[in-house]
Protein backbone atom coordinates (compact mmCIF):
# COMPACT_ATOMS: atom_id res chain seq x y z
CA UNK A 1 0.00 0.00 0.00
CA UNK A 2 1.26 3.38 -0.94
CA UNK A 3 1.15 6.26 1.50
CA UNK A 4 -0.31 9.31 -0.13
CA UNK A 5 0.00 12.82 1.10
CA UNK A 6 -3.18 14.60 0.34
CA UNK A 7 -2.40 18.12 1.22
CA UNK A 8 -0.37 20.21 3.54
CA UNK A 9 -3.05 19.81 6.17
CA UNK A 10 -1.61 17.96 9.12
CA UNK A 11 -3.78 15.69 11.18
CA UNK A 12 -2.99 16.37 14.78
CA UNK A 13 -5.45 15.65 17.49
CA UNK A 14 -6.09 17.29 20.79
CA UNK A 15 -9.13 15.38 21.93
CA UNK A 16 -10.82 12.03 21.46
CA UNK A 17 -8.85 9.57 19.46
CA UNK A 18 -6.52 10.48 16.71
CA UNK A 19 -6.72 10.61 13.00
CA UNK A 20 -3.41 9.66 11.59
CA UNK A 21 -1.48 8.62 8.58
CA UNK A 22 -1.61 5.05 9.81
CA UNK A 23 -5.39 5.11 9.93
CA UNK A 24 -5.52 6.68 6.56
CA UNK A 25 -3.27 4.03 5.21
CA UNK A 26 -5.50 1.38 6.61
CA UNK A 27 -8.63 2.86 5.14
CA UNK A 28 -6.98 3.33 1.81
CA UNK A 29 -6.10 -0.36 2.02
CA UNK A 30 -9.65 -1.25 2.92
CA UNK A 31 -10.96 0.77 0.02
CA UNK A 32 -8.63 -0.84 -2.41
CA UNK A 33 -10.10 -4.11 -1.32
CA UNK A 34 -13.68 -3.05 -1.51
CA UNK A 35 -14.11 -0.18 -3.88
CA UNK A 36 -12.27 -1.02 -7.06
CA UNK A 37 -15.07 -2.89 -8.68
CA UNK A 38 -17.20 0.20 -9.22
CA UNK A 39 -17.25 1.72 -12.66
CA UNK A 40 -16.50 5.30 -13.49
CA UNK A 41 -17.19 7.89 -10.82
CA UNK A 42 -14.82 9.93 -8.77
CA UNK A 43 -11.08 9.43 -8.61
CA UNK A 44 -11.55 6.15 -10.46
CA UNK A 45 -13.21 4.56 -7.47
CA UNK A 46 -16.80 4.56 -8.63
CA UNK A 47 -17.77 6.13 -5.33
CA UNK A 48 -20.07 9.11 -5.83
CA UNK A 49 -21.10 9.53 -2.21
CA UNK A 50 -20.13 8.51 1.31
CA UNK A 51 -22.62 7.90 4.10
CA UNK A 52 -21.32 7.45 7.58
CA UNK A 53 -22.57 6.33 10.96
CA UNK A 54 -20.41 6.48 14.08
CA UNK A 55 -19.12 8.46 17.03
CA UNK A 56 -16.52 11.17 17.74
CA UNK A 57 -13.97 9.45 15.52
CA UNK A 58 -16.18 10.38 12.56
CA UNK A 59 -18.47 13.23 13.67
CA UNK A 60 -17.90 16.26 11.44
CA UNK A 61 -20.30 18.52 13.33
CA UNK A 62 -23.49 16.81 14.49
CA UNK A 63 -22.95 16.96 18.24
CA UNK A 64 -22.27 20.70 18.27
CA UNK A 65 -25.47 21.24 16.28
CA UNK A 66 -27.62 19.53 18.85
CA UNK A 67 -25.72 20.59 21.97
CA UNK A 68 -27.42 23.41 23.88
CA UNK A 69 -25.46 26.62 24.54
CA UNK A 70 -22.80 26.02 27.15
CA UNK A 71 -22.50 22.30 26.49
CA UNK A 72 -19.42 20.82 24.85
CA UNK A 73 -17.81 24.25 24.78
CA UNK A 74 -14.37 22.68 24.44
CA UNK A 75 -14.82 21.53 20.87
CA UNK A 76 -16.50 24.79 19.87
CA UNK A 77 -13.24 26.70 20.22
CA UNK A 78 -9.77 26.67 18.77
CA UNK A 79 -7.49 24.75 18.68
CA UNK A 80 -10.35 22.47 17.59
CA UNK A 81 -10.61 22.99 13.87
CA UNK A 82 -7.26 24.76 13.60
CA UNK A 83 -6.65 23.12 10.26
CA UNK A 84 -9.91 24.55 8.92
CA UNK A 85 -9.28 27.95 10.50
CA UNK A 86 -12.47 27.59 12.60
CA UNK A 87 -14.03 25.02 14.92
CA UNK A 88 -16.18 22.63 12.89
CA UNK A 89 -17.46 20.30 15.59
CA UNK A 90 -14.80 17.73 14.82
CA UNK A 91 -13.16 16.29 17.93
CA UNK A 92 -9.79 17.23 16.49
CA UNK A 93 -7.71 20.20 15.52
CA UNK A 94 -7.08 18.51 12.19
CA UNK A 95 -8.74 16.21 9.71
CA UNK A 96 -10.53 13.02 10.65
CA UNK A 97 -10.13 9.71 8.88
CA UNK A 98 -13.44 10.32 7.15
CA UNK A 99 -12.00 13.57 5.75
CA UNK A 100 -8.97 11.79 4.31
CA UNK A 101 -11.25 9.16 2.93
CA UNK A 102 -13.39 11.78 1.19
CA UNK A 103 -10.27 13.46 -0.20
CA UNK A 104 -8.96 10.16 -1.41
CA UNK A 105 -12.21 9.48 -3.26
CA UNK A 106 -12.11 12.92 -4.83
CA UNK A 107 -15.17 14.02 -2.85
CA UNK A 108 -15.77 17.11 -0.71
CA UNK A 109 -15.68 16.79 3.09
CA UNK A 110 -18.86 15.20 4.43
CA UNK A 111 -21.36 17.59 5.90
CA UNK A 112 -23.00 16.67 9.17
CA UNK A 113 -26.62 15.61 8.72
CA UNK A 114 -27.84 18.10 11.33
CA UNK A 115 -26.43 21.04 9.36
CA UNK A 116 -29.65 20.95 7.42
CA UNK A 117 -28.98 23.42 4.64
CA UNK A 118 -25.62 22.26 3.45
CA UNK A 119 -25.01 20.14 0.40
CA UNK A 120 -25.50 16.42 0.69
CA UNK A 121 -24.84 15.73 -2.98
CA UNK A 122 -21.82 13.61 -2.12
CA UNK A 123 -23.12 11.98 0.99
CA UNK A 124 -23.98 12.79 4.56
CA UNK A 125 -22.51 12.13 7.95
CA UNK A 126 -24.81 10.79 10.67
CA UNK A 127 -22.05 10.14 13.22
CA UNK A 128 -22.39 11.91 16.57
CA UNK A 129 -19.62 12.30 19.12
CA UNK A 130 -20.41 10.27 22.22
CA UNK A 131 -22.78 7.93 20.41
CA UNK A 132 -23.09 4.33 21.49
CA UNK A 133 -23.97 1.30 19.39
CA UNK A 134 -26.66 0.11 21.79
CA UNK A 135 -29.49 2.19 23.13
CA UNK A 136 -28.11 3.32 26.48
CA UNK A 137 -31.42 2.92 28.27
CA UNK A 138 -31.38 -0.83 27.62
CA UNK A 139 -27.72 -1.23 28.28
CA UNK A 140 -27.27 0.63 31.51
CA UNK A 141 -30.75 0.36 33.00
CA UNK A 142 -31.07 4.09 33.34
CA UNK A 143 -27.92 4.44 35.41
CA UNK A 144 -26.15 6.02 32.56
CA UNK A 145 -25.71 9.75 32.86
CA UNK A 146 -23.81 11.06 29.83
CA UNK A 147 -25.75 13.72 27.95
CA UNK A 148 -26.91 13.08 24.40
CA UNK A 149 -26.95 9.38 24.76
CA UNK A 150 -29.94 9.07 22.50
CA UNK A 151 -27.67 9.12 19.46
CA UNK A 152 -27.34 5.38 19.21
CA UNK A 153 -26.80 3.51 16.00
CA UNK A 154 -30.56 2.96 15.86
CA UNK A 155 -31.24 6.70 15.77
CA UNK A 156 -28.49 7.32 13.23
CA UNK A 157 -29.97 4.60 11.02
CA UNK A 158 -33.36 6.25 11.26
CA UNK A 159 -31.80 9.56 10.21
CA UNK A 160 -30.10 7.78 7.33
CA UNK A 161 -33.35 6.19 6.15
CA UNK A 162 -35.36 9.40 6.56
CA UNK A 163 -32.69 11.28 4.66
CA UNK A 164 -32.63 8.80 1.79
CA UNK A 165 -36.45 8.70 1.61
CA UNK A 166 -36.68 12.48 1.50
CA UNK A 167 -33.90 12.75 -1.08
CA UNK A 168 -34.98 10.00 -3.46
CA UNK A 169 -38.41 9.05 -4.71
CA UNK A 170 -38.36 5.28 -4.55
CA UNK A 171 -36.56 2.45 -2.79
CA UNK A 172 -35.16 1.55 -6.19
CA UNK A 173 -33.58 5.00 -6.54
CA UNK A 174 -32.10 4.68 -3.08
CA UNK A 175 -30.73 1.28 -4.00
CA UNK A 176 -29.21 2.70 -7.17
CA UNK A 177 -27.58 5.56 -5.26
CA UNK A 178 -26.14 3.19 -2.68
CA UNK A 179 -24.70 1.01 -5.43
CA UNK A 180 -22.34 3.87 -6.20
CA UNK A 181 -21.72 4.85 -2.58
CA UNK A 182 -19.50 3.87 0.28
CA UNK A 183 -21.10 3.34 3.69
CA UNK A 184 -19.16 3.38 6.95
CA UNK A 185 -20.77 1.66 9.90
CA UNK A 186 -18.54 2.97 12.65
CA UNK A 187 -16.28 3.11 14.37
CA UNK A 188 -19.09 2.58 16.87
CA UNK A 189 -19.34 0.58 20.09
CA UNK A 190 -16.22 2.04 21.66
CA UNK A 191 -18.36 4.35 23.77
CA UNK A 192 -20.55 1.51 25.02
CA UNK A 193 -17.40 0.17 26.63
CA UNK A 194 -15.90 3.54 27.55
CA UNK A 195 -18.98 4.55 29.49
CA UNK A 196 -19.17 1.21 31.28
CA UNK A 197 -15.45 1.17 32.13
CA UNK A 198 -15.42 4.77 33.27
CA UNK A 199 -18.58 3.92 35.21
CA UNK A 200 -16.37 1.64 37.29
CA UNK A 201 -17.34 -1.69 35.82
CA UNK A 202 -14.38 -4.00 35.62
CA UNK A 203 -13.11 -5.52 32.40
CA UNK A 204 -14.67 -8.93 32.97
CA UNK A 205 -18.07 -7.34 33.52
CA UNK A 206 -17.74 -5.17 30.44
CA UNK A 207 -16.71 -8.19 28.37
CA UNK A 208 -20.24 -9.46 28.82
CA UNK A 209 -21.43 -6.56 26.68
CA UNK A 210 -19.38 -7.63 23.66
CA UNK A 211 -21.87 -10.04 22.02
CA UNK A 212 -24.70 -7.49 22.23
CA UNK A 213 -22.55 -4.62 20.97
CA UNK A 214 -21.27 -6.70 18.05
CA UNK A 215 -24.78 -7.89 17.23
CA UNK A 216 -26.03 -4.29 17.23
CA UNK A 217 -23.32 -3.26 14.78
CA UNK A 218 -24.01 -6.27 12.57
CA UNK A 219 -27.76 -5.67 12.60
CA UNK A 220 -27.20 -2.06 11.53
CA UNK A 221 -24.86 -3.21 8.78
CA UNK A 222 -27.50 -5.65 7.54
CA UNK A 223 -30.04 -2.84 7.36
CA UNK A 224 -27.65 -0.76 5.31
CA UNK A 225 -26.97 -3.72 3.00
CA UNK A 226 -30.70 -4.38 2.69
CA UNK A 227 -31.16 -0.76 1.58
CA UNK A 228 -28.80 -1.60 -1.28
CA UNK A 229 -25.32 -0.67 -0.08
CA UNK A 230 -22.69 -2.55 -2.03
CA UNK A 231 -19.52 -1.24 -0.36
CA UNK A 232 -19.46 -1.18 3.39
CA UNK A 233 -16.68 -0.67 5.90
CA UNK A 234 -17.07 -1.89 9.47
CA UNK A 235 -14.19 -0.67 11.65
CA UNK A 236 -13.06 -2.35 14.85
CA UNK A 237 -12.08 -0.75 18.14
CA UNK A 238 -8.74 0.84 19.03
CA UNK A 239 -6.24 -0.65 21.48
CA UNK A 240 -7.89 1.31 24.26
CA UNK A 241 -5.20 0.33 26.76
CA UNK A 242 -2.90 2.72 24.89
CA UNK A 243 -5.20 5.73 25.17
CA UNK A 244 -4.11 8.53 27.48
CA UNK A 245 -7.54 8.68 29.14
CA UNK A 246 -7.32 5.04 30.23
CA UNK A 247 -3.62 5.24 31.06
CA UNK A 248 -4.47 8.11 33.38
CA UNK A 249 -7.70 6.87 34.91
CA UNK A 250 -6.69 3.24 35.26
CA UNK A 251 -3.01 3.53 36.06
CA UNK A 252 -1.67 0.37 37.69
CA UNK A 253 1.16 0.23 40.20
CA UNK A 254 2.58 -2.99 38.77
CA UNK A 255 4.69 -2.75 35.64
CA UNK A 256 3.44 -6.22 34.67
CA UNK A 257 0.09 -4.58 33.88
CA UNK A 258 1.73 -2.88 30.88
CA UNK A 259 3.02 -4.26 27.61
CA UNK A 260 6.23 -3.25 25.85
CA UNK A 261 4.51 -0.28 24.22
CA UNK A 262 3.45 1.03 27.64
CA UNK A 263 -0.21 0.10 27.13
CA UNK A 264 -2.53 -1.55 29.65
CA UNK A 265 -2.59 -5.21 28.65
CA UNK A 266 -6.03 -6.19 29.92
CA UNK A 267 -7.74 -3.33 28.12
CA UNK A 268 -6.01 -4.15 24.85
CA UNK A 269 -6.93 -7.78 25.24
CA UNK A 270 -10.50 -6.69 25.83
CA UNK A 271 -10.54 -4.56 22.65
CA UNK A 272 -8.98 -7.46 20.73
CA UNK A 273 -11.81 -9.73 21.90
CA UNK A 274 -14.40 -7.27 20.62
CA UNK A 275 -12.55 -7.07 17.32
CA UNK A 276 -12.26 -10.85 16.96
CA UNK A 277 -16.01 -11.26 17.48
CA UNK A 278 -16.75 -8.41 15.10
CA UNK A 279 -14.52 -9.88 12.41
CA UNK A 280 -16.19 -13.28 12.72
CA UNK A 281 -19.57 -11.62 12.40
CA UNK A 282 -18.42 -9.58 9.38
CA UNK A 283 -17.23 -12.80 7.75
CA UNK A 284 -20.71 -14.19 8.33
CA UNK A 285 -22.23 -11.15 6.64
CA UNK A 286 -20.02 -11.62 3.60
CA UNK A 287 -21.44 -15.10 3.20
CA UNK A 288 -25.00 -13.74 3.41
CA UNK A 289 -24.35 -10.84 1.02
CA UNK A 290 -22.03 -12.28 -1.64
CA UNK A 291 -22.63 -9.39 -4.03
CA UNK A 292 -21.51 -6.72 -1.56
CA UNK A 293 -17.95 -5.82 -0.60
CA UNK A 294 -17.83 -5.71 3.18
CA UNK A 295 -14.49 -4.67 4.66
CA UNK A 296 -13.38 -4.85 8.26
CA UNK A 297 -11.11 -1.89 9.01
CA UNK A 298 -8.36 -2.80 11.45
CA UNK A 299 -8.03 0.35 13.56
CA UNK A 300 -6.42 -1.72 16.33
CA UNK A 301 -3.28 -2.70 14.50
CA UNK A 302 -3.07 0.56 12.58
CA UNK A 303 -3.04 2.43 15.85
CA UNK A 304 -0.34 0.13 17.22
CA UNK A 305 1.87 0.54 14.17
CA UNK A 306 1.50 4.29 14.51
CA UNK A 307 2.44 4.11 18.18
CA UNK A 308 5.37 1.79 17.56
CA UNK A 309 6.51 3.81 14.57
CA UNK A 310 6.15 7.11 16.40
CA UNK A 311 9.85 8.00 16.46
CA UNK A 312 10.20 7.36 12.73
CA UNK A 313 6.95 9.20 12.00
CA UNK A 314 8.12 12.23 13.92
CA UNK A 315 5.43 12.08 16.59
CA UNK A 316 6.30 12.07 20.26
CA UNK A 317 6.44 8.95 22.31
CA UNK A 318 5.42 8.16 25.85
CA UNK A 319 8.08 7.84 28.49
C1 LIG B 1 -29.35 27.96 6.64
O1 LIG B 1 -29.16 28.93 5.66
C2 LIG B 1 -29.66 30.20 6.03
C3 LIG B 1 -29.57 31.13 4.81
O2 LIG B 1 -28.34 30.97 4.14
C4 LIG B 1 -28.89 30.70 7.22
O3 LIG B 1 -29.32 31.98 7.60
C5 LIG B 1 -29.07 29.73 8.36
O4 LIG B 1 -28.26 30.12 9.46
C6 LIG B 1 -28.68 28.32 7.94
N1 LIG B 1 -29.08 27.39 8.97
C7 LIG B 1 -28.23 26.48 9.44
C8 LIG B 1 -28.82 25.58 10.47
O5 LIG B 1 -27.09 26.34 9.09
C1 LIG C 1 -15.63 -7.68 38.56
O1 LIG C 1 -16.82 -7.25 39.15
C2 LIG C 1 -17.70 -8.29 39.51
C3 LIG C 1 -19.01 -7.66 40.00
O2 LIG C 1 -18.75 -6.65 40.91
C4 LIG C 1 -17.04 -9.18 40.58
O3 LIG C 1 -17.89 -10.24 40.91
C5 LIG C 1 -15.74 -9.72 39.98
O4 LIG C 1 -15.04 -10.45 40.98
C6 LIG C 1 -14.86 -8.60 39.49
N1 LIG C 1 -13.72 -9.19 38.76
C7 LIG C 1 -12.49 -8.78 38.93
C8 LIG C 1 -11.45 -9.47 38.12
O5 LIG C 1 -12.20 -7.86 39.69
Automatic annotation (TrEMBL):
The keyword Glycoprotein applies. GO terms for molecular function: hydrolase activity, acting on ester bonds. The chain crosses the membrane at residues 12-33. Keywords: Glycoprotein, Hydrolase, Membrane, Signal, Transmembrane, Transmembrane helix. Pfam families: Lipase_GDSL. Belongs to the 'GDSL' lipolytic enzyme family. This is GDSL esterase/lipase.
Amino acid sequence: VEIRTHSSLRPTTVFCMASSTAFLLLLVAALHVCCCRGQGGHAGTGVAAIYSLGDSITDTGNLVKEAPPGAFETIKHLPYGLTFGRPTGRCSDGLLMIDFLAQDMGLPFLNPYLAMNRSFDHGANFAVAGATAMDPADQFNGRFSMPFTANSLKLQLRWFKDFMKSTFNTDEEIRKRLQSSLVLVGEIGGNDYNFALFGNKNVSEVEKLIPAVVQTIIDATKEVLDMGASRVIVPGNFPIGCLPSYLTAMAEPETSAYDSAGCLKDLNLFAAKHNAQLQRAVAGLRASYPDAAIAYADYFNSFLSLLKGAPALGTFRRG
